[in-house]
Design brief:
Blueprint: H1 5-31, H2 35-45
Helix pairs in contact: 1-2
């Protein structure tokens, strides 16, 4: 069965959202132990509106 355009767009958007979430999760994990990844995470997080008020350095 052929997907109509709406279904293809919906599937594409869902897949893109999953990939973005996986990227954020992996980068966050890496940033906890790697100072270079933390710099990258800080640069990326605002574009996803992720704010970490109250986060203390050295604590997970």
């Amino acid at each position: 069965m052929k997907l109509n355009n709406y279904e293809r767009i919906k599937d594409y958007e869902a897949e893109r959202e999953k990939k973005e979430l996986e990227f954020i999760i992996n980068l966050t994990r890496e940033a906890l132990t790697d100072p270079e990844k933390e710099k990258e995470w800080n640069a990326v997080r605002t574009s996803f509106a992720l704010y970490t008020e109250g986060r203390k350095k050295g604590r997970i």
